[in-house]
Amino acid sequence: MNALFQQVYDFVEERIGLKTLEAKLMKEPIKGGSRWAYVFGSVLLFIFIMQAITGMLLMFYYIPSADHAYASTQFIIHEVDYGWYILSYHFWGSSAMVVMVFAHMSQVFLWGAYKKPREMVWLVGLALFGLVMAFGFTGYLLPWDQRAYWATTVGVEIMDKTPVIGDFLARFLKGGPTPGQMTLSRFFVIHVMILPGALMGLAGLHLFLFRSAGPAGPFRGTPDELKAKTDFFFPRQVWKDIMAMGVVFLIISTLALIEPVQLLEQATPDPGDYHPEPEWYFLFLFQLLRWKVFSGEFGQFLGAIAIPGLFMLLLVALPFIDRNPERNIFKRPIALLCWAVVMIGITVLTVSAILNREFLD
Amino acid sequence: MTPSPEKTPSVKLAWAVSWSAFWTGFPLKLIVALLLLAAGINPWEGGGLIALLLVSIPIDIWALGLTARTVFLERLGLDIDAPVGFTLWWQGAVLGGLVLGISYYAVSGAVDVGKKVAAGIIGLIKKVFPHFPIAEQITVELLLWTIPVTILALVLLLIWLKLFGWCIKRLIASSGTTSSASYFERVRQWDSARVPDDVGLMITSFGAAMVLVTIAFWMVLPVTTPHPHQDYQMPEVSKPAKPMKPEDALKKTENSLAKAEAILASLEDAKSKESKKPERKGK
After folding, report:
1. Residue of B31, B136, B139 to mutate, interface with A, max A Cβ within 10 Å
2. Which of A205, A231, B1, B132, CA to CA, is 20 to 30 A from A189?
3. Would you say A238 and A26 are in contact if contact means Cβ atoms under 8 Å apart?
4. B243 confidence band (pLDDT: 50, 70, 90)
5. Among A78, A242, A287, whose Cβ lies nearest the Cβ of B234?
6. What is the DSSP string of A12-75?
7. Of B26, B38, B229, which is closest to A257 when you measure between CB atoms?
8. Looking at the complex, does the CB of residue A79 fall below 8 Å from at least one CB of chain B?
């Protein structure tokens, strides 16, 4: 058996240079050794692969038409063997992806890993962040229940406020005056074809740029300590990555079992008793827009487009504004304070939006 | 330069041990919780909770022992000649029980008082600004009571860490010996404690454990949703008709015919006997 395996290995090695590939992938030195803080990128890749697998399984039964989307989703939940679990895993997996993107970006920010020579890694990472949010937004409509329909309506209305391209974007996505068959078709195509392709391409570029620039390493420790701890990617970092993936899989599965997907009524242009709101990760923005200061045409533009747009621009410009080579977050108090304010702000506004539901009835 | 245990702050030491121990034991506990959930048992109450807590005891002892030894070796250059996991587990559990008990009453009391105070302040603001919008009101009120409550919870956590740090320092003082190994050797030592050098063994055992857990999970996971939609019409499932076996059907018919024949024969027999009987003459 070993001889046969060796023969197969030699055959492939002779043709594609497995040893070189293995050396490139596994023998990459990690300055300061393996760390749990480095697992977020690998975990994101794992979540994406799981989303792709569960998404493909769901597509065997899902019908992307306004007449059948709701019924086929109900069929998946109630009739297909383990369909409820696969759908719930896919649902919670999308939330896990958003959480993990925030965690990954936070780690890169706090560790100063966006600084020279890793500016391009940061920029491509920001584009990937946008894609993940777009995945969540387009996937939310597909079950075609009231929650899906109205979350999309709210989202498209926010998009509509973008100057110059907003009107075109909103009309293109909706494909009509109200969300309907064209909207569903377009969201479906974007969700299962355009975004996965774009994400795979950008994730590949992100990895290539990361490997070219090399890992930033810890921001603390003497050169002797870092040298003593320096290790190859395999086996210790691989082990940590696998463990983290396992934990994430367990958490998503647990959430899928505690709170499996349950649809509301089928989508209609009349919200009835349902109070429209977007997905939970856009709730902070939704709550912000309820503030008096952001009311009116200009206020809505300010809250929905100008402030988030400026924030994203600031993130894009960050590696070029912050040229100080110091990476230790405890020696960068402004950066630490800004990160804390943003995180607390998002948390407080999200909780406020949940509390606000009581006042809507 | 390795810092001495006396100079290392108790809170920092306790945090290093307990944070790592939490994440070391967490995946194993999560597997148990997941299996219970898949089997339809709630792991957060009743029997499920008891089972989870019981399983957590050996996991926590193992996790505390592993991470504490790693921290001692890495940060303090110390080897410990004592049952580290068990000692720290019971001391941490006693302290945890005490601080958690106090925290429960302190935090819930603070939440009640905080909410009342926040509502009072909002009332005052509304007197000055009668049209104080509801969205802003919710956020201001939330911040007013969550900030002091969060500070209180953090202080209680720090108290637990301080006390647990003292326990760790006492253990080090009684059983710690300075390691003669160089920093480089110690790095390899703690790496080996956490990740076995034998990669083949590691992958095989990990893979086997995963396969077992996966099989157990799929065996107990419900096939259809345990939470059906209230309006969803489950299709009526009619009992499938038994498939007809021609041989059996023939045999059955033959038996019925044979029975009928036998009955007919016995009836004819009885009739012929009756007709042969001599007629009784009347008186």
Report:
1. B139
2. A205
3. yes
4. confident
5. A78
6. HHHHH-HHHHHHHHH--EETT---GGGHHHHHHHHHHHHHHHHHHHHHTT---STTTHHHHHHH
7. B38
8. yes
CB contact under 8 A, A355 and B33: no
Task: Count the residues in chain A.
Answer: 361
Among A77-91, A300-314, B195-209, the minimum mean pLDDT is found in B195-209
Query: B123 by DSSP, 3-state: which?
Result: helix
User: Which of B142, B223, B232 is opposite residue A352, by nearest beta carbon?
Assistant: B142
The angle formed by the CA atoms of residues B224, B228 and B229, to the nearest 5 degrees, is 145
- Interface contact flag, A78 B229, Cβ < 8 Å: yes
Residues of chain A with Cβ-Cβ distance to B139 below 8 Å are 287, 348-349, 352
Closest CA to B230 of A192, A336, A263, A121: A263
| Proportion of chain A above pLDDT 90, given as a percent | 71
User: Which residue in A has a C-alpha nearest to residue B138's C-alpha?
Assistant: A352
Give the rounded percent of residues in chain A with a pLDDT score beyond 70: 99
Contacts of residue A357, defined as CB under 8 A and 6 or more positions apart, other chains included, come to A275, A277
User: How far is residue A221's CA from residue A228's CA, in Å, rounded to a whole number?
Assistant: 11
Q: Which fold has domain A30-271?
A: Cytochrome Bc1 Complex; Chain C (1.20.810)
For B236, which DSSP code? P
d(CA A246, CA A238): 12
Mind telling me how many Å the CA of A175 is from chain B's nearest CA? 30
Question: In the predicted model, what is the mean pLDDT of residues A229-257?
Answer: 90
Q: Report whether pLDDT(B283) > 50.
A: no
Are A250 and B34 in contact (CB < 8 Å)?
A: yes
Q: Does B233 touch chain A (CB under 8 A)?
A: no
Tens digit of each residue's pLDDT (9 = 90 or more) over A222-234:
888 788 788 888 8
